[in-house]
Amino acid sequence: MLGYIETLVNDIKPSDEYKYHTFDESKRKTTSTEQNYRSEKARKECIRLKGWQCNICGFDFEKTYGALGKEFIEVHHITPIGELSSAEDYAGTDPQKDLIPVCSNCHSIIHRRKNPYLPEEIKAQLDRK
User: Fold this and answer.
1) Which residue in 92, 61, 55 sits closest to 75, CA to CA?
2) For residues 37-52, b (16+ Cβ closer than 10 Å) or e, as one string?
3) Apex CA 45: angle with CA 41 and CA 47, to 5°?
4) What does DSSP assign to residue 66?
5) What is the model's pLDDT at position 72?
6) Higher pLDDT, 128 or 2
7) What is the chain's mean pLDDT, rounded?
8) Do 84 and 90 meet the contact criterion of CB atoms below 8 Å apart?
9) DSSP-derived 3-state class of residue 42
10) What global pTM score does this model have?
11) Distance of alpha carbon 78 from alpha carbon 116, whole angstroms
12) Residue 73: partners with Cβ closer than 8 Å, 6 or more residues away
């Protein structure tokens, strides 16, 4: 058995190895989607109220990346925008209660499941450490 494995390994040419480690990502498809409009004014007001650092973990892009990270942060809808905007009593997005500035990592973790985690759930995970 060991001899068979050695033969397989030794018979691989560099071009063969390369061939088996590439993946075709050139295929294209056309899609049509409907998206909710996100208000830039609401985003700016959220950041004005809550700051440029992640409100979950405290990450500050400017402190880490210098000028490149200045005034960079993602803004997350605590209640998914589709749910929020389709509620009967929807009167608009409230930047104070509906939005939160988050870093890219926390934002990705929030959306790790179909029903997004609440910011408090992610913060609780960080507090456990």
Assistant:
1) 55
2) eeeeebbebbbeebeb
3) 120
4) G
5) 98
6) 128
7) 88
8) yes
9) helix
10) 0.76
11) 8
12) 47, 52, 53, 54, 61, 101, 102, 103
**Domains in the chain: boundaries:** 40-127
Q: What is the pLDDT of residues 72-94, one digit of tens each?
A: 999 999 998 888 888 888 888 99
Mean pLDDT of 30-56: 92
Handedness of CA 60, 103, 77, 31 (dihedral sign): positive
Tokens of 56: 């979950």
Cβ proximity of 122 and 109 under 8 Å = yes
Distance CA 61, CA 71 (A): 8
Token representation of residue 50:
């809550």
